[in-house]
Inverse folding.
């Protein structure tokens, strides 16, 4: 049990005194970049999905006639 207590005590000390936390401005800029990147990635995947779906429907319909 002492090892567990030491682990948590050391972890809290490390987080308080040794970790360099970003400023609010840096955090907002990083969050904006992540949001923008996620939206771009979602748009690309969505366009690929629509194009593959359209191509496959055309392919399957060419055999149904």
């Amino acid at each position: 049990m002492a090892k567990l207590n030491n682990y948590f005590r050391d972890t809290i000390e490390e987080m308080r005194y040794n970790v360099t936390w970003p400023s609010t401005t840096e955090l907002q800029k990083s969050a904006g970049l992540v949001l923008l990147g996620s939206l771009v990635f979602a748009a690309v995947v969505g366009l690929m999905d629509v194009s593959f779906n359209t191509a496959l429907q055309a392919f399957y319909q060419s055999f149904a006639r």
Observations:
- The chain is about 90% helix and 0% strand.
- The helical segments are 2-17, 24-64.
- The mean pLDDT is 95.
